[in-house]
Amino acid sequence: MAIFDFIIIGGGTSGLVVANRLSENPETKVLVLEAGDNYLENQFVNLPAGWPTLLETGKDWDFTTAPQKGLNDRVMTLPQGKALGGSSAINSCVFTIPSQASINAWASLGNVGWDWKTLAPYFYKSHTLHKPSDADVEQLGLYNKLSTEGKSSGPIQVSFPSDLNSPFQKAWNETFDKLGYGFKGNIDNGTAVGAYSPPAAIDPTTKTRSYAAKTYYEPVKERTNLTVVTGAAVTKILFEGESPKLVAIGVEFAHEKTLKSYKASKEVIVAAGAIQSPKVLELSGIGSPNILESYGIPVRVANANVGENLQDPIISGVSFEVADGIETIDGLGRGEPEALGKAMNEYMTTQSGPFGRAAVNSTSILPVNELQTENGREEIHKLLNTAHPAAPTDPAYHKVVRPLIEDPEQGSGLLFMYSAQANFGANSAKGLALAEMPENFVTVSAMLLNPLSTGHVHISSANPDDMPALDFKYLTHPLDADLMARHIQLLDKITTTEPFVSLLKPNGKRNKMYAPWKGLEDVKQYIRKTALSNWHPVATCSMLPKENGGVVGTDLVVYGVKNLRVVDASIMPLSPRSNIQSAVYAVAERAADIIKSAYQ
Ligand SMILES: Cc1cc2nc3c(=O)[nH]c(=O)nc-3n(C[C@H](O)[C@H](O)[C@H](O)COP(=O)(O)OP(=O)(O)OC[C@H]3O[C@@H](n4cnc5c(N)ncnc54)[C@H](O)[C@@H]3O)c2cc1C
Fold first, then answer.
1. Its Gene Ontology molecular function terms (predicted)?
2. β-bridge pairing 127-129 and 156-158
3. Ligand 1 atom nearest 272 alpha carbon
């Protein structure tokens, strides 16, 4: 049996960061086992705008949820990357830094030493933020919004969209200014609130996707102490001894239709993502005894927290028909040969145009609008304390999220805009991107940043090939629907305020599911018909004290086992307030340092 120092399960976003850093020492032998394939040469992976074409293909696990009671029993799908680079190979590239408050909340939850101050260096170690050109700075409204220029110096290349002909970004920023949500803080140090145009993980020189496989793996793939096997699905972790002296010593995996085993002399590191890291643990006998025994899996460590605490921010929104003469990218979505030819020509000749950009044009992190007035603040206070008060059975993280909802300096929603139609009501990411209407649109979506509803993901059998049973339980906490409805209601203001309103066709069309709403209850009904995942699941192997729902401690070691850690999105005890890939990279960088220091 081959022996490595470290075996990493999953060569995704986090797995490749840890593999790169651990193999910096030529004496350390590292093995990465990745179930998906290597798509480094795949043009649709490399093309930033190519991601919708990757969904529901062999590059996407394409999980299915249980019927979502809070969303009219709709059954939905969840994309997750099945590729070297994992979800960073198929994501939509937006790269934003989370709020300091949401990272500090990790420490408040009992994770001493995991706060903004300690994690910030790892954000800067994992990416390099490229300054926009002077012309772009003006167009994107980015003056004075970069505080850490030159501070970031990591492998992921992050750049700003250059779209000088588009009227949308400027109009977005000016409209939010008028509504009292002018930009405050800095976009790269966790203090951003208000409207801006976000950067993306796109290499500014090549205008290609900058992701884990390209930046953390490809440059070091010749290291003789680093072995990466693709098409290798881990079926279980191998152990020696019994709890409490249980030790992880290797893995069993399926490769080329054969079951193989390799040994790890130091550690097994789980990086299979928020949906499948708990699956790997459960298949290996770490989880709820009730679940494991029902599938005949011997219990090695009883911990009912594995696979629980699942948090996933949802989105909904409205598409608005644009005024005549305003250009959008709907033609690409409809597959019109003329639009595709023009975009490809721009991309190939001058590396410009929509193919080289992330889908999202602008975002805005906002508190609920009600906090702008005295009466509104009273209303939200009552909502939190009288209508939906905290219960003793609430998960621990509610205690830190609830005060943030009433804080006007924090955001509870993230609004974002892109210049194309969205097919709200679809139950899949691919369906959402379907462009069926012949007119052109701009879409404004809202994402609920820290939902109080939690779900779970567990194995559905003892067969590693079976998909896990996934239930997000979206909107089952009543406060989520109330907050989400208020964020969606703000769309009425944005789209009737100058200069944004001038970009819209008066009495123009809306997306098919839209019907004018008369009040919050109508908005809630619309959300139940249209909301879906924004593909940021976290917290299923939470870093928390075990009695508060934890699976790993602050050293990321799995409770009750030696030599076994988890290093991916599943350890985040609370979703960071932003798109989350930046935090996944930062956590993985820090995990690598923690592991290295354990062997010094
Ligand atoms: C469609 C989509 C769009 C997104 N858009 C954005 C965005 O614009 N901005 C942003 O910040 N975030 C975005 N995200 C989220 C972000 O990409 C993820 O949160 C992040 O990449 C997760 O990293 P991870 O390491 O936890 O998991 P992953 O990157 O998913 O890695 C897990 C890896 O483990 C492998 N694996 C699983 N089980 C096994 C097994 N048993 N054996 C071997 N290998 C296994 C998987 O194939 C995968 O490669 C998006 C995600 C998706 C799916």
1. flavin adenine dinucleotide binding; oxidoreductase activity, acting on CH-OH group of donors
2. parallel
3. 34
pLDDT digits 0-9 by tens, 403-442? 999 999 899 999 999 999 999 999 999 999 999 999 999 9
Rounded Cα gap, residues 33 and 235, in angstroms? 11
CB 442 within 8 A of CB 419: yes
Question: Which SS3 state, helix, strand or coil, does residue 235 take?
Answer: strand
**Binding-site annotation, residues for FAD:** 13-14, 91-94, 234, 535-536
Instruction: Say yes or no: CB of residue 285 within 6 Å of ligand 1.
Output: no
**Cβ contacts of 7 within 8 Å, gap of 6 or more:** 31, 33, 250, 251, 262, 264, 267, 268, 269
| DSSP E strands, 35-89 | 63-64, 77-78
- Could you give the CA distance from residue 273 to residue 281 in angstroms, rounded to a whole number? 12
Nearest CA, atom 16, ligand 1? 581
Task: Specify whether 536 is catalytic.
Answer: yes
Contact 551, 281 (CB under 8 A): yes
Residue with tokens 């390209």: 214
Q: Backbone dihedral region of 560: left (phi > 0), alpha (psi from -120 to 50 degrees) or beta?
A: left
Q: How far is the CA of 71 from the centre of ligand 1 (A)?
A: 24
CB 306, CB 275: distance < 8 Å: no
Q: Where are the beta strands (DSSP E) in 193-257?
A: 194-196, 226-230, 232-240, 247-255
d(CA 251, CA 269): 10
φ and ψ at residue 188, rounded to 5 degrees: -115, 15
The residue whose CA is least distant from atom 27 of ligand 1 is 273
- Catalytic residue, chosen from 127, 456, 487, 536, is 536
Q: How far is the first Cα of the chain from the last one, in angstroms, to the nearest whole number?
A: 26
Residue 149 has what pLDDT? 62
Residue 253, both tokens: 């995996």
The Cα–Cα gap between 33 and 229 comes to: 5
Closest approach atom of ligand 1 to CA 54: 1
The rounded distance, in Å, linking the Cα atoms of 380 and 482 is 10
**Nearest to 596, CA basis, from 22, 11, 27, 14:** 22
How far from 189 is each of 93, 123, 339, 353, CA to CA, in Å? 19, 9, 38, 29
Could you tell me if 126 and 589 are in contact, meaning their C-beta atoms sit under 8 angstroms apart? Answer: yes
Alpha-carbon distance of 190 to 558, in angstroms, equals 29
Q: Is the CB of 581 under 6 A from ligand 1?
A: yes
Tell me which of 186 and 128 has the higher pLDDT: 128
Summarised one tens digit per residue, pLDDT across range 96-118 is 999 999 999 999 999 999 999 99
Amino acid at 58: G
